[in-house]
Amino acid sequence: MSSSKPTAVRPHDATMSHVHAGGHALELRQLRKSFGKTDIIRGVDLAVRAGERVAIIGPNGAGKSTLFNLISGRFPPTSGEILLGGVRIDGKKPFEINRLGLSRSFQITNIFPKLSVFENLRCGVLWSLGYKYTLFRFLADLRDANDRAEELMRMIRLDKKRDTLAMNLTYAEQRALEIGITIAGGAQVILLDEPTAGMSKSETSRFIDLIREVTVGKTLLTVEHDMGVVFGLADKIAVVVYGEVIAFDTPDAVRANAKVQEAYLGSVLADEQAATAGH
Amino acid sequence: MMPKSHYAFKPYNVARWIIWSLFALVLLMAPQVFSSNLSVSMLAQMGIAIIACLSYNILLGQGGMLSFGHAVYTGLGSYVAIHTLLKVSEGAMNLPVSLIPLVGGLAGMFFAVLFGYVTTKKSGTTFAMITLGMGELVFAMSLMFSEFFGGEAGITADRMAGEPFMGITYGPNIQVYYLIAVYTFVSVALMFAFTRTPLGRILNAVRDNPERVEFIGYNTQIVRYLAFVIAGFFAGIAGGLAAIQFEIVTAEVVGPVRSGGYLLFTFLGGATFFFGPIIGGVLMVLAFVLFSEITKAWLLYLGLIFLFMVMYAPGGIASLIMMNLRVAAFGRLRELWVSYLGLGVTGLVVFTGAGALIEMVYHLQLSTAMGDTVQFLGATLNARSPDSWFGGVFILLTGLGLFELARRHFRLQWAEIQTDIEKEIKRRETQ
Questions:
Q1: Which of B146, B140, B138 is nearest to B112 (CA)?
Q2: H helices of A9-158, where?
């Protein structure tokens, strides 16, 4: 496995410079969301330091994906605050939040199917390099955008598939491309929604190495079901049960937490052990 | 080691130079080869239709926006252009006639800025519905404001207005043709260039997956709006050229039939490739001018062809060409010629049978006063005789059966070749 390459300074770094050392990259304060009469998120407080890797775990329907949708601006929260590097982002549109340095991936692969791998990634870098809605320049002349897209393509190991249409990639390749598009703009806070969903065991472990490698130095939040991945990847684990964070601590502390054992982890770990024993 | 970039910028792409030179040559030489008055007029109309269909495809093919009201922008471009032409010939305005299409373009753009703001707020079905509403709105207004739209008679003007420039009076058709040819070349080049810009590429991304685009920093609404305005500009140029070509503009140019025409022929030509609408534009003029002369039932045939294409070749003619070029590139096209011959011959039989029936029905409905006989493909049919009907039905059914057989055979053969090509591609990748 190759070691991670040092990455050049990205435009979004400037946006994040006001995060003083040890400051919070992302902070949720009393966040709530209800759909109709149903409360999905019921007062979440969470503070993630810059550079931390946080795994969000919890049973199905606990509100993990909704949490991501609130943070990334897909839905507005019902009440509460979301701060990105100290700046309020709740109620902002997804593209505004992205421009402030937060990027996300999706549980169901969400790429540009009729564009090539290279074009997918280049679309991902355009805004962050300041090209915006440019009409009077040719893409072929944008050296920095092209170089960055090539670099990303190598990082996610798809350089041999440069001109393949995204819809013709294998599932695992599409998942990698999804991650590539997510990190393309150089955002400092990365949200990955079940990045390894639907992958085989061996694919998963390779993929986790890839994720670790491409998110070096970034703040990472990930929703994940595979406990091996969670305990291997995360500095901290947030356990979400029924719309609330019942624990937010280091993996060891979470594992030992009685409340977590009772509400969620006990059954999952038992299942895992049973599954391993069965093999 | 320095990371080697796979990306290489090629400033002189030879193939591209050849294609564009050929395009210019065709535009230049076409009226020399087809030199009758009708041909030159048709060629001029083709240039106009090419610009209009390409501008429509910025919405449909590149942006995934299904518009039912594109004629609003070509048509209003025509109206503003013809009013400008009137002003010039009255001496109230001093503007070379050569620049009037540009006035049409700016008008199209202006109305796209105005109406597009509402239209592009939403995508998908909502967008389609709003364009339909806008189209109806403007068409209805054309009957209300006869000052501007000219009522039933429309607005007429004389294109031989202002001072002739270097002997160009725009009296002879050929001069108008070359004006249109220049605008066509420049517009096609500019619209092609647009597909190579950051905005053009993000527009493709919006077509593919608008939601994802929101999460890479782009406001999809602005992307759609900008594309709509650009499409409006080129639509207006086509409209302005049409005003000079015909010297008359009537309300039908903003009407729903015209809008439907752009949709239909852009689709027939092929919305997924840049050059598809160019084929579409050429076909549009052939259908409207020639086909409509041959038979009264031309719209019905057109509808049948459209249905057939939607079912069997949704990528239009352009995608048929590209798919066969791909097969040819792997050296497999020659195996297919027997199948193509089979499809062609049986298709022709179907067409003959269906055509005979359609012509007889039309004859019975519309022109029984002219006698009972119909001339069709050299044969004399009697619309009141059971023999002719039986013959028509027999040919149609036989043709359909044989065509289906040929199609099934072709489909298997085609699938086999595609599998081989996929394997070959995989093999080359792993090398």
A1: B138
A2: 11-15, 64-71, 94-99, 117-126, 143-155
Task: Beginning with the edge strand found earlier in the chain, give each strand of the sheet holding A244-249 in spatial order.
Answer: A102-104, A189-193, A219-223, A53-57, A236-241, A244-249
> Minimal Cα–Cα distance from A85 to chain B, Å?
18
Shared domain for B285 and B341, answered yes or no, is: no
Whether B334 and B304 share a structural domain: no
Q: How far apart are CA B139 and CA B121, in angstroms?
A: 22
- Partner residue opposite A110 with nearest CB, options B202, B207, B212: B212
pLDDT over 50 (residue A10): no
Query: Which residues of B33-143 form beta strands (DSSP E)?
Result: none
Nearest to B197 among A119, A138, A162 (CB): A138
- Alpha-carbon distance B302 to B81, whole Å? 31
Q: Are strands A244-249 and A236-241 parallel, antiparallel or unpaired?
A: antiparallel
B275 plus B382 within the same structural domain: no
Label residue B365 by pLDDT band (50, 70, 90). confident
Residues B312 and B334 in one domain: no
- For residues B177 and A201, give the distance between their C-alpha atoms in angstroms, rounded to a whole number: 67
State whether B219 and A93 contact (CB < 8 Å): yes
Cα gap B2→B61, rounded to integer Å: 40
Over pLDDT 90: what percentage of chain A?
A: 68
User: Taking the CA atoms of chain A, what radius of gyration do you get in angstroms?
Assistant: 19
- CA nearest B64 in A: which residue? A114
Enumerate domains of chain A plus CATH numbers. Answer: 24-278 (3.40.50.300)
Kindly give, in sequence order, each residue whose CB lies less than 8 Å from that of residue B56, ignoring residues fewer than 6 positions away: B67, B70, B231, B235, B262, B263, B266, B277
The verdict on a CB contact (< 8 Å) between A132 and B198 is: yes
Residue written as tokens 């022109």?
B367
Q: What is the pLDDT of residue A260?
A: 84
This model of the complex carries an ipTM of 0.88
Q: Give the domain CATH number at B173.
A: 1.10.3470
CB contact (8 A) between residue B213 and residue A123: yes
DSSP state letters, A190-243: EEEESTTTT--HHHHHHHHHHHHHHTTTSEEEEE---HHHHHHH-SEEEEEETT
Using DSSP, state whether A43 is helix, strand or coil. Answer: strand
Residue of B58, B65, B11 whose CA lies nearest to B192: B58
Pick the closest to residue A24 from A77, A88, A96, A98 (CA basis): A88
pLDDT of residue B3: 43
Asked if B198 lies within 8 A of A136 by C-beta distance, the reply is no
CA-CA-CA-CA torsion sign (B191, B197, B199, B202): positive
Of B5, B205, B215, the CB nearest to A72: B215
Is B107 part of any domain? yes
Closest residue, chain A, to B431 (C-alpha): A160
B207 and A103 within 8 Å at the Cβ level: the answer is: no
Judge: B198–A112 Cβ closer than 8 Å, yes or no.
Answer: no
Partner residue opposite B217 with nearest CB, options A127, A139, A149: A127
pTM (2 decimals)? Answer: 0.90
Q: Give tens-digit pLDDT for B331-346.
A: 888 889 999 999 999 9
* Residue B59 structural domain: 14-316
